[in-house]
Specification:
The protein has about 325 residues and is of the alpha+beta class. It is built from twelve helices and ten strands. About 35% of the residues lie in helices and about 15% in strands. The strands form two sheets. A five-stranded mixed β-sheet has the order 2-1-5-3-4. A five-stranded mixed β-sheet has the order 7-6-10-8-9, with helices on both faces. Strand 8 and strand 9 form a beta hairpin. Helix 7 crosses helix 8. It starts with a helix and ends with a strand.
Length: about 325
């Protein structure tokens, strides 16, 4: 399988979700907590690499608007629904809309590392009382597009020491990249992504560090680890709290001293400054998730970043206790 084909398989990864309207919101909109047939539940597939603001328009158009129309509710007296008011909740936790959907799933579905994922993913949808203290307010497609461009520039700076590759994109190329992400078109997105992050020969990593510039390899890997605090006290039945995740972001070099390829375990030790043997025992008791896949700790970081990156060009790795 070619690298492009592997990347497209990751791009095509989906999560089936089951949406229910919050009872309080239903009462406010319809004067009843019971929704009319056939609107009690809404099912859809969402891309793992995508963001919640890019699906709210579809949810509103295909579910909420027809439901209000059937119920005879008019857009008066504050009864209209704005996309920027929509937010999602899982087991009482508001979902951070600027995180990729797949990352949220890996963080919050506590049994995903045990091979028993919750499918469909049951979420509650809200259209009122936006939790401004827990979420960035006013989510919209435009705000998401702006934030995504900022993330792409950050990843470019980590990889190359500047944002030149992104900044040199024509305005039309930037729009194509964003359009491809929003409508989930791999062809549109990948045509521009391959300019920002050109393919390289993965075997070049094993050469001496002095030849990195000639091989076209990046200076460092854009990577974030997400680890739940107090994992030693957690168990399978414990519901992860997204506010208790510690996020470690550190530019990770491609190789260790002696030009050996940097592995996921090496990157984890580097990110959390682990130098003693107790850290090795902790790693043994944990699993590392990326794109819903349990990644062997000995996997080279360069292979991972070439094949399992998210749309923002970062590797988002979730570390969960499995013992």
């Amino acid at each position: 399988m070619s690298q492009r084909a592997a990347i497209q398989k990751v791009w095509d990864g989906m999560i089936p979700i089951e949406l229910q309207l919050a009872a309080a919101d239903a009462i406010e909109l319809l004067a009843s907590a019971v929704l009319p047939d056939p609107f009690q539940t809404f099912y859809m597939l969402i891309p793992r690499i995508n963001y919640l603001p890019f699906i709210t328009g579809r949810v509103k158009e295909q579910w909420l608007d027809p439901m209000l129309a059937l119920s005879g509710v008019r857009a008066v007296d504050g009864m209209s629904i704005n996309e920027s008011d929509i937010w999602f909740e899982y087991n009482g936790q508001p979902l951070r809309w600027h995180y990729p959907a797949g990352l949220l799933y890996d963080m919050l579905v506590s049994n995903v590392a045990h091979g028993e994922p919750e499918l469909p993913w049951s979420l509650t949808l809200h259209v009122r009382k936006f939790p401004v203290r827990k979420l960035i307010p006013q989510p919209s497609t435009q705000q998401m597009r702006d934030m995504f461009m900022a993330m792409i520039k950050e990843a470019d700076f980590i990889r190359n020491g500047s944002t030149k590759r992104v900044m040199d994109l024509a305005k039309s190329d930037q729009m194509q990249l964003l359009d491809g992400l929003e409508v989930h078109s791999f062809e549109k997105y990948y045509a521009i992504h391959s300019i920002i992050v050109p393919l390289h020969d993965a075997k070049a990593v094993v050469v001496s560090s002095g030849s990195k510039a000639r091989s076209g390899l990046p200076k460092a890997i854009p990577l974030k680890f997400y680890m739940l605090s107090g994992q030693e006290d957690a168990n399978e039945s414990t519901q992860p709290d997204i506010s208790q995740f510690h996020v470690s972001q550190l530019p990770v070099p491609l190789t260790k001293e002696g030009s050996e390829p940097m592995t996921v375990a090496d990157a984890f030790r580097l990110s959390y400054e682990i130098t003693d043997t107790s850290g090795n025992a902790f790693i043994t008791n944990c699993a590392c998730l990326c794109q819903g896949i349990t990644i062997p700790w000995e996997t080279p970081i360069t292979w991972l970043t070439d094949n399992l990156f998210y749309a923002d060009c970062f590797l988002h790795l979730v570390v969960v206790n499995v013992k």
